[in-house]
Amino acid sequence: MRIRALEISVGALILAGMLALVALAINVSGLNLSQKGGGYTVYARFDNIGGLTERAKVSMSGVQIGQVSAIRIDRKRLMAEVEMQIFDDVDYLSIDSSAQILTAGLLGEKYIGITPGFEDDLLENGMTIEDTQSALVLEEIVGKFLFNKVSE
Amino acid sequence: MIQFLQKLGAKTLNRVAAVGRAGQLLSQSLIAKPAPMMMLPLLIRQLYFIGVLSLVIIIVSGLFIGMVLGLQGYTILVDYGSEQAVGQMVALSLVRELAPVVTALLFAGRAGSAVTAEIGLMKATEQLACYEMIGVDPMRRIIAPRLWAGFISMPLLSMIFAIVGIWGGSLVAVDWLGIFSGSFWANMQASVSFSEDVLNGVIKSLVFGFVVIWIAVFQGNDCVPTSEGISQATTRTVVYSSLAILGLDFLLTAMMFGDF
Amino acid sequence: MAQLNDTHIEVSNLSFWRGERKIFDDLSLTIPRGKITAIMGPSGTGKTTLLKLIGGQLTPDQGSIRVDGDNVHALSRRRLFELRAKMGMLFQSGALFTDMTVAENVAFPLRVHTDLPESVVRDLVLMKLNAVGLRGASELKPAELSGGMARRAALARAIALDPDFLMYDEPFAGQDPIAMGVLINLISRLNRALGHTSVIVSHDIQETLSIADYVYLISDGKVLAQGAPDQLNGSEDPRVEQFMKGRPDGPVPFHFPAPSFKDQLFGDSQ
Ligand SMILES: Nc1ncnc2c1ncn2[C@@H]1O[C@H](COP(=O)(O)OP(=O)(O)OP(=O)(O)O)[C@@H](O)[C@H]1O
Ligand SMILES: [Mg+2]
Fold it and tell me: Is the whole model's pTM more than 0.90, yes or no?
């Protein structure tokens, strides 16, 4: 009887450890296995992504609709090209939607905000969002502001 | 002067010899042909003594450390208006550093010292010699199950520590200080990477667990078989383990998160 | 051939140091098969050490020990453990496994070295415990036994496997006269009935001599005298006589080697 209790508690320890690993994977690091296969890919080019990272959120009106899957330089245009996975159930983005790099709070992380357009044609897998607005880079704004002051 | 040099030399030689004996112990107990049917009940018993009995201290410490992190993180970040990032801070510091390191330190104090004292006492009362004379290798019967149990328990305990700590952090930040829970978790999920942060934390805890339990069984097996000798060996287990954990932590962190 | 078979254990030219102290100096002796050999000598001469050397737990500095013709200290670790499975040893300290009950202690050698079904193991354990008068104590933990009971439980464990070769280190220490009589009977019966080779280390001279076939008297790292019990009892050698009769004064020193007492007491005061 005492042996049984001992074995059960050891089993419980191992189970708890495994559950902790699963929780670390899903709740803490946001690993989502189903998301890998699902979703369709959309591209957007920016002059400056200013600190956007892979796995950053893609959201519309503050609700997450996908995530950034890759960031690279487009060699022809010499611009940043961001690859996004948009969830499958998001089937209402028109082709003239615009993408913007935003910041959550003053020091928060960067994410992409999508503003839907008015066309009837919808974005499909592999298409590119043409209307983009780069990240606000603090140095540039301050620079512009100073430049304007001087030229006045 | 000559005497000093002689002492220094003797000490160094002793240390080198001890490292050699520790290596020999490891190879004799692990490389020895395993007898699984015999081994499993012994392993389960040791998992109980080493793992399950350490659970309470791990959970309680994890909870408090997580809560403190939540509180401290909030008071610092709120000055910059980024208190949403507290989830990220709590999770990253726990997963990368605090869970493996603090768990290993507690583990050395709770389980390592117990293992050393137990084996040392078995040596002092000639139980180890008696196993040998019965024709049972104490390396396999006594040392090996403890080594494996420590090696298996440590990552489990460390992951439990991390989860409990993060939960404690959310308790303070979300339920008490009123941070919006959506941004608490979303921020955390965006910044914690499974393959880099979580897995590296697990690797650290595996390394620490191995080193701590190795030191513990070696000190027990190598102690002077008197009450004094056992108490010194137990102290050495805790001191050497703690130093090894902190030193290795720096090395591993540099290798995992440094730029080389 | 017959001659060879009669020697179970052969200790030849054995020398052994503990640090700076020489415990054995060129010691040679043979232990005949199937007989009871007693090893006696003053406390601290190294009788326990000799048993540990035979069991391969200590390594001699010179000389060799052969069991069944195999040099114990040249065997591989694996073969050494196989050899030990054929030996039984009663430790001077008992050395019961403190995490098991008395019954589990006695069952341990049976469980690791045989595939006997559990019911047979149980019966064997009860038989062995009965032989030493501890059948009623089978479910106690070693910490709950008295010194003499622990010694008897350890004896039951040592004989559990009916090994070829048994070493008893002080089997009678701490036993009341009745238990002593029972144990003497038990040891000699085991030897006569099953033909075990037995080595007894004991300070209970008359009891031991009553069952021993051959006696070695060891002192100062050497064999002081040897022979059948009668020979030793009738020995003219003053050292042997002193030991046999247990007289405090005589050529055999009672004290551990030390500078003269007078020098130590008064030497420093000037
Ligand atoms: N671990 C040890 N380290 C150093 N010296 C030891 C050790 N064990 C025993 N000795 C020394 O070896 C000598 C022989 O010890 P041993 O235990 O063999 O004596 P013994 O003949 O069995 O004595 P007793 O009859 O009292 O049991 C003793 O003088 C002791 O001082
Ligand atoms: Mg002795």
Answer: no
